[in-house]
Amino acid sequence: TDGFDENDVRAGLSNFTFDIRLASERWPSEPNRIQDCFDRICDTWTTTAVPNPARGIDINSWANADRRRDICKSNVSDPGNSSFVRLSDRLVRFRGRPDPLYDVRKGERILVSVPAFCTASGEKAPAGNTTIHVAPQAGFVDFKLCTDTDDGEVVTELSEHAVRAGGFNLCVVSRMDNFEDDPLFTTEFTNQMYLALQSNGTEAFGFNNKKQLLVDPPRIRPNRIIFPFTGDTTFDIADNETLLFNVSHTWMASGAAPTPQVLALRVYVSAGTVNVTAWYGSDGRNVTEDDVRWGRVWFEFSLLGDQWRRERSPYTQIWTGDLNDATTDTFSTAVGKLIPEMAFFKFTVQPTGHEVLRLRLQSNEAFDLPRKETVTITFPGTAVASGVPPLFQPPGQSGLAERIPSWTFQVHAVPGRIILSGATINLNEKLVRRSDSVSWFLTLVGETWRPNASNFLSATNAISAYNAESDPSNAVAGFESLKNTLVPPSSVTIVTPRTMRLDLRPNRFFEIVIPEIVRFRVGSQLTLSGFAPTTARPLEAPIVPTGGELRLANTISVTEEDVRTGNFTVELAVDGDQWDLISIQNNLNKFVADGFSSQSPVIREPNGFLRNRDEMLRLNSLPVLTQNFQADASTIAIYMFPSPSYDIDADETITFSVSDRDYVMSPTGDLPDPAVVSFTILSVSRTLVAIIDPNLAYTSTFESQPRTFEAVVAQLMSLGVSRVQVDNAVGRRPRDQMLILKFKFVGSATTTDPRSAAELASTMLSLNSGFLYGQIGSRYLYFEDAPPPESELYPSSPAPVDTTPVLTTSMLQLIIWLCSAVVFTILVAIGFVVFMRYQRRKLAVGLTRSEAVENQGEDRGEFEFDAKSEALAKEREAQSMRRIHQVKEQCARLRAEGRTAEALDLARRGIPADDPFHNETELGHNDRSHSSGSGSSAIGQLGPGGAPVIATMSDGRPVLAPMSMKAYVRRTRFQEDDAAITARDLSPRRGELADDDDIPDEYRAEREKTAQGLTKARGLEMRDNNGDPEVGAPDTVSGIRLPSSGLPKAKMATTEGALTEAELEDFRKRRATGQVRRRRAAVDALVDF
Q1: How far apart are CA 538 and CA 521, in angstroms?
Q2: Does the pLDDT of residue 264 top 90, yes or no?
Q3: How far apart are CA 870 and CA 876, in angstroms?
Q4: How far is CA 511 from CA 504, 545, 895, in A?
Q5: Structure confidence at residue 1084 (pLDDT)
Q6: Which of 213, 724, 1031, 1050 has the maximal Cβ count within 10 Å?
Q7: Does pLDDT of 247 surpass 90?
Q8: Which of 95, 123, 111, 94 lies closest to 24 in space, CA to CA?
Q9: pLDDT value at position 629?
């Protein structure tokens, strides 16, 4: 009785079957009574279900009479179709009939009992009853697009556009179960249901982030949950999302989780919508190629439902033009140049969710359209984040169905511009005649030349010239007259599709008197678009007159042998002018004599042109135009007569100049420019100067028999001896007595020896210097007409002919020896440095401290105390004071007598050198400079016999000057009212420091004690290297280690006892034998190193 659920009841028969057994009673046996019992018994069974018709709850439960009647159908005569079957007197089996309308939301308990009329006696109902448990069956849920009254159709996916647009209800519809819509729970369930509707996406503009704008709170009905989608334009996804709704069992009337418990709805990405909100042609203007060329075209694309990609490459693929001419930059071919870099894209996001791209095309001077071009813009999927190509919304349309994949606009062709460049300024008559690199360039901007544009000159008046007097020009030999030869069709070339080049050809007959202006005209038949190009100013190039110019009308290539035979002619032409033959005839000798000259003076070429000019030109026989002088209006030919004596050592340049304006018929009266021409006569000989080493045995013959040199050089150069000539006798160079030998190669090339004299000389000059030294003993070789070298190379021995460097055995040995010496030197230096470092550790640390004190300008002395010296110190102090008073009195007396200079000199000289108190110094005189140091002073002196002299500190304590000091400086000071010798601290030279080896161990403690006493006596603090007070350093005084070098190794003096005479005598002996001095010298040498 506990194993039934709703489905079992709905299925009936064997699914909903149980037996009713009577214990003390029997079921009726009469058929009519049995049928009556079975028809009425089900109505006596009660249920726990409480139908609620208003809310639609349990209205089809067991409490519903129709449901009971359908389930409890009985037919005694037909047991197979009856709900009740009497199996025995006490047993009846119930088998419910199928009823698909049975529905109970929370389940129910049916109380089964047997009434009295179902017993055989019919008097009393049997005691007891049985409860049948019917469990609720979980319902089924689906996503549907519904209304409040209509379930609608099941939906499994929605488009991004649909979610963005909204205006529909997304319902969760339940079958076979109800949602709990009790008002007590409505608010709580509503919040839970709203939170349960989520997406698996995480995009910034996806469902989860836009949910509050997309969906209103749900409404609950018994069999559905209604989510109103209101839509939001900012909703935008790049990838598909899935809406998930997890149905909680607590929301169900049955309390059972429905099937499926989690509903899923796919929201797929759909194409975004592009609107051209504005662009350069929005106001109806025609977009021209000029607008594109100069970067004036821009677009503003608004995208809804997607996001623009921030990459440049997709935007170069959105343009398609209907022109594809390889010779011009149309939209299709130039798009890569028109799209700017990504930094110049402007993206903005509006509050409405529209993402706006503002794109301005870059300028491109090469952009050119031969005709109107239609450009289509189609955005690929790579241009947006979703990857779905967006669609354009046509103007005036708003529906999704009206969207189109592309948008078009037109670019109209317009006339281009033309620019003339090249020889447009500073063009003159002379340049036109010569046509040296004279070119004009006609460049189209925004236009292209036709392939046959080189036929430019066939057009009438394509090129013309005019002047101030006429148009076209009336000059007889001007540009207009000679343009077909100056600019023939072959000189016109198409350099690039937009540039035409016109090269001027030489024409010596071009001549103008007044300026001419060349004019160009370009018609529409020459451009690809069929438009005549425009220009800001006329295409003109002025030509100014410059007068005539002198030139050689023939090519002159002669040698000195040609001059000697006289078989060449000089032709003089004047372009742009004419010779005045009458004036020339009247002054022929002057014209020729003044015109011809040479750049080589007579002193350099004694047999050159200047010496032989009259003979070559026959000047003395030219009173009129003779046989060697032929002329017409533009050219004069002068024949050169033979001159056998002509001989030059180097090439000679001959010039001819026009020095008188009367010789030409210039309308301006100016000389030709240039008025000078020149040609060169080549020398067939070349002189070399050889510096010969006289120390070589085989060169001594050059001095006694110089001509033998000819044979040596001829053999060296494989020549006949006749081609080598010694020019002069052997001489000697004064500075080093080297032999100087001059020789030259003569004669012209022959069939057996084609080399010229100049080539022979250059060949010999290029030979290896070592080889020449070995062959002819030449230290150096140079041309006579060239400056001698600044330095000469002197090879130590003759070099082999082969110039390849060879590493000989001696060189290898030398290299090995040098390397060994370097290594040995390095090892010695390292050992010496290590040894010196070891020795320096034994030196007192006062080395660096004394240097610091010297830099501070303080002179301090370190002394050892000796109690025995007190009496001697007092005696010396009294003697010193008496001597000082004597000097003071002498100075005072001299001043009183007016002898101030002598008094000053006495004061400066101080104690005489022969005085026993006078100090020994390195300079041999007294140093009267004053130290800037502080503290008491002492005078370190040597008494007779080299005994130490005792000085006195300021507090009267005697000190013993260390004998290791090499020099002391005595300080004196003269004052007018007083004279005193202040004993200052005297420091030894750098490096003269204490050697601890000289001090026995038993005296070290005493030395430290005396150092502390000295410090207190001087009123000084003990300081370290940084100048800070130092604690625990009794052997230092103001940062300086007290030296004891030079003291005898015997017992040192203490405060209780003085040095004995034996000890002093021992020290004197050591000093006399040089032991102390040698020790100081060694220390000095080490410090200097």
Answers
A1: 9
A2: yes
A3: 10
A4: 15, 8, 107
A5: 54
A6: 724
A7: yes
A8: 123
A9: 60
φ, ψ at 507 (rounded to 5°): -150, 105
d(C-alpha 518, C-alpha 541), whole Å:
5
Least confident piece of the model among 436-445, 465-474, 611-620, 1060-1069: 1060-1069
Burial class (CB in 10 A: 0-12, 13-18, 19+), 104: buried
Helix (H) / strand (E) element for 331: namely: helix 331-338
* Size (the chain), residues: 1089
Q: What are phi and psi of 587, to 5 degrees?
A: -130, 45
Of the candidates 337, 498, 335, the residue with the CA atom closest to the CA atom of residue 411 = 335
pLDDT per position as a tens digit, 825-852: 999 999 888 888 887 776 644 444 544 4
Residue type at position 691: I
Q: State yes or no: pLDDT of 210 exceeds 80.
A: yes
**CA 786 centroid distance within chain:** 51
Sequence-separated (6 or more) residues with CB below 8 Å from residue 787: none
**Alpha-carbon gap, residue 178 to 220, rounded angstroms:** 10
- 796 falls in which pLDDT band (50, 70, 90)? very low
For 500-538, the three-class secondary structure string (H helix, E strand, C coil) is EEEECCCCCCCCCCCCEEEEECCCHHHECCCCCCECCCC
Rounded Cα distance, 725 and 489, in Å? 60
- Structure-block tokens of residue 286: 């025609």
The C-alpha atoms of residue 63 and residue 43 are separated, in whole angstroms, by 9
Compute and round to an integer the Cα radius of gyration of the chain.
Answer: 66
Residue 171 CA to residue 154 CA, distance in Å, equals 9
897 CB-contact burial (10 Å; exposed 0-12 / middle 13-18 / buried 19+) = exposed
3-state secondary structure of 945: helix
Asked if residue 603 has pLDDT above 90, the reply is no
Instruction: Give the C-alpha separation, 21 to 32, whole Å.
Output: 20
The per-residue pLDDT for 406 is: 92
pTM exceeds 0.90, yes or no:
no
Give me the DSSP letters along 839-889. Answer: HHHHS-THHHHHHHHHHTT------EE-GGGHHHHHHHHHHHHHHHHHHHH
* Portion of the chain with pLDDT greater than 70, in percent: 73
Q: Report the pLDDT value the prediction gives residue 1049, as an integer from 0 to 100.
A: 35
Cis peptide, bond prior to residue 674, ω within 30 of zero: yes
Least confident of 438-452, 792-806, 931-945, 1012-1026: 931-945
Higher pLDDT, 311 or 1033: 311
DSSP state of 471: S
Q: What is the 3-state secondary structure (H, E, C) of 729-754?
A: CCEECCCCCCEEEEEEECCCCCCCCC
Distances from the Cα of 556 to the Cαs of 552, 570, 646, 680, 682, in angstroms? 9, 7, 18, 8, 11
**Alpha helix locations (H) across 897-946?**
900-909
Closest CA relative to residue 658, chosen from 672, 639, 670, 640: 672
Q: What count of other Cβ atoms lies within 10 Å of the Cβ of residue 753? A: 15
Q: How far apart are CA 1034 and CA 1015, in angstroms?
A: 9
User: Six-digit token pair at 843?
Assistant: 């030196």
Q: Cα 904 to chain center, whole Å? A: 76
Whole-number Cα distances in Å, 121 to 51, 115, 129, 239, 747: 36, 11, 19, 79, 174
DSSP class of residue 686? Answer: E
What lies within 8 Å, CB to CB, of 523 at 6+ separation is: 459, 532
Instruction: Copy the structure tokens of residue 403.
Output: 């969207």
Q: In what order do the strands lie in the sheet with 558-559?
A: 558-559, 676-682, 652-657, 596-598
Q: Tokens 């779905």 — which residue?
A: 388
More confident residue, 801 or 350: 350
- DSSP designation for 575: E
**Angstrom distances, CA of residue 944 to CA of 110, 914, 941, 959, 1068:** 151, 12, 10, 18, 11
Start-to-end C-alpha separation, the chain: 122
